[in-house]
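Now read the record:
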Amino acid sequence: MTSEELNIAFQKAFEKACNTKIELPPDVMLHFYAYYKHATHTEGFYTPSGDSELRNAFKLNALFQVKNLTSEEAKLKYIELVNKHITDV
């Protein structure tokens, strides 16, 4: 898969995830979050934002778990996750 094909597939997967009506468990949502942020935030380390310190801690932990992936690997993992869990769109 070329870089352009990967970017198109990633964008389609993102749109599919955004339009789902399926309520996913929090741990799966954290995987979505981490793969997406790692795939799209390529400069430095991304720090979660929000008002909930506990939620930010979970997000930060999820980001640490994917820190060794490349941006391309994160995109592929995100696409795999969408294909596995989003079945209504």
In short: Helices lie at 3-18, 26-40, 53-65, 71-85. The chain has a mean pLDDT of 92.
